[in-house]
Each structure stands twice: as C-alpha cells, then as structure tokens.
Amino acid sequence: QVQLVESGGGLVQPGGSLRLSCATSGFMFSSYHMRWYRQAPGKERELVATITNDGGRTSVADFVKGRFTISRDDAKSTVYLQMSSLKPEDTASYYCYAENSWISSYQYWGQGTQVTVSS
Known about the structure:
The chain is mostly beta strands and about 120 residues long. It has strands at about 5, 10, 20-25, 30-40, 45-50, 60, 70-75, 80-85, 90-100, 105-110, 115. The strands form 2 sheets. Strands 2, 4, 5, 6, 9, 10 and 11 form a 7-stranded mixed sheet that branches. A hairpin with a 6-residue loop joins strand 9 (about 90-100) and strand 10. It is globular. The model has no long low-confidence stretch (mean pLDDT about 95).
C-alpha cells in the first residue's frame, strides 16, 4: 500500500522556519522524482520544489527561491522541505508528490500538512 505522510506543519511567525517531512512507503522511493506543492484557500495548487530521483538536481519556484530547500534521504524514503524566512503569503496546505522517473503516469499524492504564517 502506497503511503505519503506529510508532517512538520504548524503555526509560525513571519520570519520563522519550519521543516516539512514526507515519509513514504509502498513504492521504490529511489526511482521517484519528488515534489512539494502548495495550495492556499481559493487558489490553485502550485509547484514549490522538485528533486530528481537520484537527488542530483533540485529546483524551487521563484517565489521561494533563497528561502526554501528540498532534500531527500533515500535510506528513510523521506523527502524534506526546509522553509525559512517565512511570509504570510506562504500560508497554505503543503502536499508531497511522487512521480516515477521512467513512467510518469505512476504518481502519488500525500494528504497535505497545513502551514500558517501569522503573528
């Protein structure tokens, strides 16, 4: 059974930091590119960060560049999103997403974790 379980969200003040984790199971983690998306109320889901299956390449959206970092630990089948200098506009539900590096139709989503940035 495939599972992607996000954790680490919560309430943080502007300028603060959080580290999100996405623990996975039920598929060959090392064969999957991993992404973080987010969705704020009333807005479309948007891509935040990507890391390739071998960890060799990462990318982040312009709106979080210099503030967010994506990483992975294949031994733990877990992907992370380190978020710093958080802004109120970062408030959203953050979702973990897995896409097979060979067969893109093999895709899995997590249930999301809420991040609220407010004073």
